[in-house]
Structure formats: C-alpha cells, structure tokens
Write a structure and sequence with these properties.
Length: about 210
C-alpha cells in the first residue's frame, strides 16, 4: 500500500531517517512516496502556498495525502489544502515537531532562542540572504533580539564547522549545540502515517465491497 507524502525540504534528512526506521519496524507493506518542497519557501506565503499546491497536484490521488509541514507554517494552510483531503501534523513548526512543545517552552523559559537544524544550517543563505534580502546589518538587527542560537543536533549528519562559523559571523549571536534524539519527531511521523494508513485501508475496503 502506498502512502503519499508532501513534505518541507527543511527536515528532509530527519524524515528520510525516520521513514527508513519505520520501514524496517513495521510489518506493513506500505511504501512511502515523498515529494519535498524547497526549504526556503516559508519566508514568502504566496510561494509556500504555490509550492505546496503544486506538489499536491502532482501527487493527486483519491486517497489521503500526508502533509508534513507545521500547522502554523502558513496562516491559510487548512483552507487551501482542504480540497486535497490531506492529513496534517499538529505541531506548529519544524522545531516543535522535533523538540516537542514542553521541551521547547522549557528551553525558552528565561532566554530568547533562535533555532537551527541541519536543514536550516545548510540553507540559511537561501532563506535569509536570497529570499529575505538581508545583508549583515539587517541580520544583526533582526537576530539581535535573541540571546542565543541553538543548533539542534539530531544526529542525521555531521555539522560543517565552517558553516557554523559563517552563520555566527552573519548574525553575531552566540551559537550553542544541543543534542536531540528523533523520538519526538518519529512519534509525530508515526501517528500521522497511521491515520493515513487507516484511511487508505478503509478506502480500499469500501472499493472492494
């Protein structure tokens, strides 16, 4: 049985690792077909909407499509995806998806934090320089709001020290590395996939009848 997925490319490495683990753990014959959108689309709501709808159109099916984006990545997400009958994630954004709401709130209890993941670190120039148009002065004005930048190490790949240094020089905000396992992320993925599989099984059963 095929599960169709449209996902943000910002956490492609994490999702690919978790999907591989799920494939080996489940006895189901489910096949995951994933379309990733460009990681920097979220800075422009129109581009994000177009990217998601294009992917959903390419992935058109009578059955449910899983949409792996934060529920708050676009203010009109539920409205423009309604006709595609998607199954969506509940966490608000990719950071809450990885950390969980409680851990994120605990980390932010006394400091203002900007989060990075491997995907953000690899794509920060596309996001902030190309898409946002921020030069170093703009970056320091905008990032000056934060006490620190927290780079979440999910273990999916090695960090590039030069990339970390480049981002620090761009923002002038201290960068700390926090090790995070993928248990929360995987839990969110599994719960969402199970909903899709239940629906797909129900649809298939009804067709047979």
């Amino acid at each position: 049985m095929e599960v169709r997925i449209v996902a943000c490319g910002i956490f492609q490495l994490e999702l690919e690792q978790v999907l591989e683990e799920i494939r080996t753990e489940w006895t189901s014959d489910a096949v995951f077909k994933v379309i990733y959108t460009a990681p920097a689309l979220h800075v422009d709501y129109e581009k994000l909407k177009a990217g998601i709808t294009d992917a959903l159109n390419d992935n058109s099916t009578e059955e449910k499509t899983v949409l792996f984006f934060g529920s708050m990545c676009h203010p009109e997400m539920s409205e423009f995806t309604e006709k595609y009958h998607v199954i969506s994630l509940q966490p608000r954004n990719c950071i809450e998806l990885i950390l969980g709401k409680e851990r994120q709130e605990k980390l932010e209890k006394s400091v203002k934090i900007f989060y990075l993941t491997q995907g953000w670190l690899e794509n920060w120039r596309k996001i902030f320089i190309q898409a946002q148009g921020w030069d170093e002065i703009d970056a320091r004005q905008n990032f000056g709001f934060y006490d620190k930048i927290l780079l979440l190490d999910t273990g999916v790949s090695e960090f590039n020290d030069e990339a970390i240094l480049d981002f620090f020089e761009y923002t002038q905000v201290p960068i700390e590395i926090e090790s995070v396992d993928l248990s929360v992320f995987k839990k969110n993925v599994v719960e969402t996939l199970e909903k899709a599989l239940d629906k797909a099984t129900s649809t298939y059963t009804n067709k047979v009848k």
